[in-house]
Write a structure and sequence with these properties.
alpha+beta, four-stranded antiparallel beta sheet, two-stranded antiparallel ribbon, 11 helices, about 45% helix, Pept_M50_Zn
Length: about 425
């Protein structure tokens, strides 16, 4: 039940975000005096609506987004009523049209920023000093967390009855113990522990000195076997190595909370990292199509492949089911930021395409005026329709592929 509740809550959060996106267009268009005839949440048949002034507001039967109808977005629009010629959108200065078209993405960014700030002062944001690379982790003290088992292959998966028990657990080590030596070799860092274990063989007995609650002690255990690549070549071929069955407990906390003022700086830093990650994710999209197809046809799902609204809602359900509300809200932040950036791409039919054309027209008029030629006027959107259809076709196919993969072979964050 909690999983289903999470799915519904996340889907509702997405619907509200998209509705606010369209509200951004609505409010800025009205602010400048443009005529807005419709604002609806959802698509399909109208369930309920009312009219206020010249605009009809309402709710439609298919809750998959929303729309805002601004009269005369292009010179080719033929729905302009007599007397409204001066209020059509394309006649307004380019800076006003830019604000109206960008307002949707700005709304998504605002939702993300406000959520990040709230998280910064409540649950906390990821600690920038937390070790995120192997090199950083190896500099940490060898404070251990016991694994449930030793997986014999080089893979991350749940334990099975056939897997060897953790040698560290068999040696009565506990979570939070700091290992100080193995077979007499001093251990000053987690990297020292890994290097020393690689010098031993599966089946060897390890004499381990450790510190627990400020008290020194020793124990011994028989090392198990797993497969790992060389320490100096993470992409190298995996080979049998000795395993103690432990992981690292970093000395730095995973999250940091901030005061109301300090949270603004933390929000800016985190948003910068999010922007870089989003740009990199957009660049990788074409490369992920084969991986999505592999997942759809029965292969393993790559956790780095894109997800659809369906996949994001499922992850939201998992987060609620496991009481991981920070994950839920981070998904909300990431999705809003991604949608905001995507809508600014200079491609029709998204908002960024309209912005790009408006500024192209402005630049072209400026150039023609400087060289003494007649202003060529507005861009003919009808001539751009073939390119628009190509974008819609590619985007639609990619969306369907992603949704299908999220239904057949979804990404999961927690064991269910």
């Amino acid at each position: 039940m909690s999983y289903l509740l999470g799915v519904v809550l996340f889907a509702l959060a997405i619907l509200i975000s998209v509705s606010l996106h369209e509200a951004g267009h609505l409010l800025t268009a009205k602010m400048f005096g443009m005529k807005v005839t419709k604002y609806f949440v959802g698509f399909g048949p109208t369930i309920w609506s009312f009219r206020r002034g010249e605009t009809e507001y309402g709710l439609k039967g298919i809750p998959l987004g929303g729309f805002c109808k601004i009269v005369g977005m292009t010179p080719q629009d033929d729905d302009v009523e007599p007397g409204d010629e001066s209020r059509v959108m394309w006649r307004y200065p380019v800076w006003k049209r830019t604000i109206v078209m960008a307002a949707g993405s700005i709304t998504h960014f605002a939702l993300a920023l406000v959520t990040i700030w709230i998280l910064a002062v409540s649950a906390g944001l990821p600690n920038p000093d937390f070790p995120t690379t192997d090199a950083q982790a190896r500099q940490e003290p060898a404070v251990i967390q016991l694994s449930e088992c030793v997986v014999p292959e080089n893979a991350v998966r749940a334990c099975t009855p056939a897997d060897a028990a953790s040698p560290a657990a068999q040696g009565q080590l506990r979570n939070g113990d700091r290992i100080t030596s193995v077979n007499g070799t001093p251990i000053n860092s987690y990297g020292d522990l890994l290097t020393t274990l690689r010098g031993l063989k599966p089946g060897d007995t390890a004499q381990i000195a450790y510190v627990r609650d400020g008290q020194s002690a020793t124990t011994s255990t028989v090392l198990a076997q797993t497969q790992r690549p060389p320490l100096n070549d993470p992409n190298g071929a995996a080979a049998p190595v000795a395993a103690l069955g432990v992981g690292l407990v970093p000395s730095t906390p995973t999250r940091v909370t901030y005061g109301p003022v300090g949270a603004f700086g933390a929000t800016a830093d985190f948003t910068g990292q999010l922007a870089v990650g989003t740009a990199q994710a957009l660049q990788r999209l074409p490369q992920k199509v084969p991986a999505l197809w592999t997942a759809l046809t029965g292969g393993e799902r790559d956790v780095d492949t894109p997800i659809s609204v369906v996949g994001a809602s499922r992850l939201g359900g998992e987060a609620v089911e496991n009481n991981a509300w920070l994950v839920f809200f981070m998904l909300f932040v990431s999705l809003n930021f991604f949608i905001g950036v995507f809508n600014l791409l200079p491609l029709l039919p998204v908002d960024g395409g309209h912005i790009a054309i408006a500024w192209f027209e402005r630049a072209r008029s400026w150039v023609y005026a400087r060289i003494g030629r007649t202003d060529p006027g507005r861009v003919d959107y009808l001539k751009l329709m073939p390119f628009t259809y190509v974008v819609i076709l590619i985007g639609g196919a990619f969306t369907l592929l992603t949704i299908a993969a999220d239904v057949v072979n979804p990404i999961t964050l927690f064991s269910r």
